[in-house]
Amino acid sequence: MLKILVLTAIICLARAQQKLYSQCGGIGWTGPTTCADGLTCQYQNPYYSQCLAGGSGTTTGATVTTQSSGTTGTLPSSGGDSQFPGGQFKHGLAWDGVFNDNDYQRYDYISIWINSPWSDKPSVTDFNQYWHGVMINKCKQYKKLPVYYAYVIAFEARAKFGFQDCDVHPTNNLCHGGANFIRQNRALLVSRYAHWASETAKALGDRNAPIVWLIEPDFWQYYGDSTQQGGPLSGEYMRALFDDFAKEIKSQLPNAKISWDLSAWIREDGMTKWWGYFKTSPYIDFVHTSGGQGQAGSAEYKPGELKWSDFSRITGKRIIADCGYGIGGGLSNNCGVWNLDNKKARIANGVIALTAAQGASQQQPNLERLPLP
After folding, report:
1. What is the pLDDT of residue 197?
2. What pTM was computed for the model?
3. Is residue 256 part of a domain?
4. In this structure, are 48 and 94 located in the same domain?
5. 323 or 22: whose pLDDT is higher?
């Protein structure tokens, strides 16, 4: 009996040790606080401490215990977070008029795009109690996690100057005027994040409530597109801007998780360099796709682009994927390809969640809650 108890204790201890890049402390954190052998739990900010190699950083006081260490680039453990992603693959559904309450009850989280211009007041991009507020209430009613796609820069530029996505209009778009818009309106953009975080905290009724923010789809275009008027922004500028956005979120919603946008078409050298500006940010919990057109049935995100596994290998982060969203916000009928076998393959590549947009009304993904490694 004693041997069984000792063995059980050893197994539990091993399971409680966090791998490289996993969270190990912070305000509100209730998961494991010890790291695998060769790693230390290093303080990043009051809300987040992370298992990192070596011991040069300030630690949270977590004890480093013995277990075979992970190598650089290995995926962080999905365990220990009771909110998101937890131990199982999560499924989300977009807040959209094509779905009803029965649909939302079958999914784990509800997503919505924020800062979009109001239909009756296109110059206004504030929190809309009749749209975003209703979505938050629905999350509370059915105990679903709210997930924000924060397209703040693009929607603000559309409201102010009518800028469109780069694949929607050939010249009056964010690939030409986006960088200058940011230069001239940086303080405004940061204040928009403050507004959305504050109003969301009020709507949730609990500033410590869990929520996930997916920051700025197509963020790379302001840095990497050579057609930007006045030239693109530097990587250092973009990192500082990202961190300022995150600080506003955390100041109002300290338990928020934050995700960094992926650009699969920039190839490995481009992604490695681009990620290099952000890899030391203390605010990035996940990475995400946002074009809705990734191929679940292929190792490559899209033909000739980076592989799904490249995203997690380069960043060391787990992936929130999406489907059912096409050019200009239209419908893309590709959610059905996320069947059981393809989902298993993508989980092996580091995908931990899938947001289904309008296309799920035509073909829904497999909704089995598979265990995460």
Report:
1. 99
2. 0.78
3. yes
4. no
5. 323
Q: What is the DSSP letter of 171?
A: S
Residues 6 or more apart in contact with residue 79 via CB below 8 angstroms? 15, 31, 32, 87
Phi, psi of 92, rounded to the nearest 5 degrees: -120, 155
Domain identity same for 267 and 138: yes
- Residue 244 token pair: 């300022």
Is 192 found in the same domain as 43? no
106 with 241, same domain?
yes
C-alpha of 160 from chain center: 26
Are 208 and 340 in the same domain?
yes
- Nearest CA among 218, 309, 250, 186 for reference residue 44: 250
Contacts of 285 (CB under 8 A, 6+ apart): 23, 257, 258, 259, 317
Based on the domain organization, do 121 and 41 belong to the same domain? no
pLDDT tens digits, 299-346: 999 999 999 999 999 999 999 999 997 766 667 789 999 999 999 999
Question: Structurally, how many domains does the chain consist of?
Answer: 2
Tell which residue, 150, 156, 168, has the closest CA to residue 123: 156
Domain assignment of residue 288, yes or no: yes
- pLDDT tens digits, one per residue of 58-78: 344 333 222 322 323 333 444
**168 and 230: one domain?**
yes
Which of 350, 352, 289, 298 has its CA nearest to residue 324? 289
Amino acid letter, 10: I
